[in-house]
Amino acid sequence: MEERRYRSASGAPIALRRRQHSASCRELAVRGPRLQLRSLSALTSAVWLAAYGLFVLSQNSMVLSAAIFITLIGLIIYLHFVKIDQESLLVIGSLGIQVTSSYASGKESTTFIEMGQVKDVVINEAIHMQKVIYYLCILLQDPGDPQGVSEVVPLFQSSKPRLDCLIEVYKSCQEILEQRKTAPQSS
């Protein structure tokens, strides 16, 4: 297993882990920055101090109870549905591509794309907030038109790695896709 350090589009540190299981099977995982206890504590303290200020002014204890309740529910929602710690891509040449997102709460979301549906893996560019950002995506083959693309599936949407990291992932994916294209011709 090999790990390299990169930066995301926003400048946050990320790590790319590459693991080659076999010649036609690779796992690529991008781990984003961990949840910072300092920022979480600061946000919670600010909400609770504001609630305490409202309590002093209104003398209503429901304000404190509501602040605690809203903070805890917000934290649970953030950890379970928003904060993604790691995004991984498992490419198996003979089978397909598995995309997994691991949330801070431990929940995982997995999508599998059969290799027969994959037309190509490409690096695309987009303009976002007056910046050009690059992203990796899987082009799915249109069943009605072999030359067409039916859908574009973007990868690493949470970690948003910069181009140098995307090129590394792209090359690994292309090596496996090339093996798949040349395998039927050689037999």
Automatic annotation (TrEMBL):
Pfam families (UniProt xref): PIG-H (PF10181)
InterPro entries reported in the protein's UniProt record: PIG-H (IPR044215), PIGH-H_dom (IPR019328)
Key words, A-Z: Membrane, Transferase, Transmembrane, Transmembrane helix
Superkingdom of the source species: Eukaryota
Pathway field: Glycolipid biosynthesis; glycosylphosphatidylinositol-anchor biosynthesis
Domain spans labelled Phosphatidylinositol N-acetylglucosaminyltransferase subunit H conserved: 88-157
Similarity-based family: Belongs to the PIGH family.
Protein name in UniProt: PIGH acetylglucosaminyltransferase
Gene expressing this chain: Pigh
